[in-house]
Amino acid sequence: MARESQRDKVIDLKPDGYQLKKFKEELVKLLAAGTRGHTLTAFWEYLIIGEIVKQTFNYEYKTLYVRDPRATDAIDKLKPFHETFMEDIEGDFSERMMILLVRISSNYRENHGSTSDAFLTTSQVTDLIHKTDLRELTSHLLDFLKLRDRTVLLIENIDKGWETRGIDSDDVVIIRSLSDALRKFERQASRNETAFDWLLFLRNNVFELLIGEQNDRGKQDVILVDWESAAALRSVIERRINISTSTKANPNGSEWYDIACKKIDGMDTLDWLVQRSLMRPRYLIQLVRECLGHAAASGKTKIDEDDLLEGYRLYSLDIIGNTNYELQDIYPRSFEAVYCLIGSPRRTSLGNIRADLKDYGYEVDAIDEVIRLMFWFGVLGTETKAGTEKYIFDYRYDERVFNIVRKPSKGSDEIVYINQAFARGLDCS
Questions:
Q1: Residue 194: pLDDT above 90?
Q2: Which of 66, 268, 298, 360 is exposed most, by the fewest CB atoms within 10 A?
Q3: Closest by Cα among 329, 332, 327, 330 to 341
Q4: What pLDDT is stored for residue 337 in this prediction?
Q5: Ranges 8-12, 84-88, 401-405: which has the least confidence
Q6: Which residues contact 62 (CB under 8 A, 6 or more apart)?
Q7: Is the domain of 396 the same as that of 270?
């Protein structure tokens, strides 16, 4: 997916969790330790350059070719590469990544069998991944990108489905090789005086484990994105409304209360939505869209209480399904465990949750991990000494702190809450 302004380009790449699992199985585990980092960096370099070329021909070619002489000349130089570069790999980014992985692992097995101790030379690595002259292609691509004010590459989901307690050495190699490939392209762009930036989104715990194994800790440009403040989340929605409704006559645009009622259940409506967002901007935006969609479908010009309730119901059902698959990705034995909460009181005990899981057939030795993951994903929260409802995201996903707050010594009597985000879809009272 790409979002663009007149002279800026933002490219979002979101590998699918399944593709990344196959990445480890099909490629990472096949390579000898001495070859692994170099080979994976070359893989990511090829894939990144390929995606930027794809985006160029999917979007700029249609809008700039012929109309802009400089862009036309730069695109003409890229054309021969576009026609042969990943030419038979169609679909979206995840599909192209998967096809490329299968192809590379197949080439490896043809030449080296299933052994994982083969040491590959630089030329063998290149032949394994591609036959393209990347140096010439990169030169032409950077000349084209130079016509923009800036190109920004965003990479998300790289750690989706990884263990919540930590990552293994293969995961570290995957992230490190990806960041090496991005830095290499960034250096090439800088030498060409081309404005290129990239952002790699990682969970805090994954980042800390990754950096902890490196000697150059502190040298990375790091942006910590933690949405602990309801006010910060409110501003996400308010800014989007301001920008999307601004006109010459009204440059400041509309506000939340211009498009929605003020109160629901005696609470500010936007705060009510934030409370059901798991403190994630993406989920809050989705929830607002569901409410707006219901209001529009009902022919209303403003969101009312009925729209909020119906939008909330649809959103809740959606994230229950999404969370179910996230749980399965990390711990297959937890699949559909979230549905065991259907009809439960929203404020209940840990003993009741355990009993429900056991009644649904979950094995005793799996229940502790299932519950731990439910706390991790914010499905379940705890009651503090002060009697307030808290979730792990209130403590920056720090399990050590959260477990102290939880009072697990109470065992089955520990009071837990089912998050408002899930409660509506699960019919919790």
A1: yes
A2: 66
A3: 327
A4: 96
A5: 84-88
A6: none
A7: no
> Which residue shows structure tokens 């080296």?
112
> Is there a domain that residue 221 lies in?
no
**Centroid of chain to Cα 91:** 19
- The answer for residues whose C-beta is within 8 angstroms of residue 205's C-beta and 6 or more apart is 164, 166, 397
218 found inside a domain: no
Largest CA distance in the chain: 73
Provide the percentage of residues in the chain whose pLDDT is more than 70: 80
Distance CA 60, CA 57 (A): 6
Please choose, from the candidates 2, 15, 13, 174, the residue with its C-alpha nearest in 3D space to the C-alpha of residue 94.
Answer: 15
SS3 154: strand
Q: Measure the CA–CA gap between 197 and 66, rounded to whole angstroms.
A: 28
pLDDT digits (tens, 9 = 90+) for 377-393: 999 999 999 999 999 99
pTM for this model (two decimals): 0.70
Q: How far is CA 284 from CA 306, 386, 405, in A?
A: 18, 28, 26
- Please, what is the average pLDDT of the chain? 84
Range of the domain at 130: 2-212
- Distance from C-alpha of 381 to C-alpha of 402, rounded to nearest angstrom: 10
Question: Which residue is it, tokens 């501003």?
Answer: 235
CA-nearest of 286, 281, 254, 284 to 270 is 284
Average pLDDT over residues 189-204: 88
Q: Considering 212, 243, 271, which residue would you say is the last residue of a domain?
A: 212
CA nearest 99: which of 59, 58, 50?
50
8 A C-beta contact, residue 369 and residue 334: yes
Look at residue 37 and tell me whether its pLDDT is greater than 50: yes
**Closest Cα partner for 397 from 199, 213, 206?**
206
Q: What is the pLDDT of residues 64-108, one digit of tens each?
A: 787 888 888 888 888 887 776 655 566 677 777 877 777 777 777
3-state secondary structure of 382: strand
3-state percent helix, strand, coil for the chain, nearest multiple of 5: 60, 10, 30
CATH at 290 = 1.10.8
Task: State mean pLDDT over 309-333.
Answer: 93
- Given a contact cutoff of 8 angstroms between Cβ atoms, the answer to whether 161 and 329 are in contact is yes
Contact assessment for residue 334 and residue 327, using Cβ atoms and an 8 Å cutoff: yes
Distances (CA, A) of 264 to 38, 260, 268, 269, 317: 57, 11, 7, 6, 21
Question: Is 288 domain-assigned?
Answer: yes
Neighbours of 364 (CB within 10 A): 9
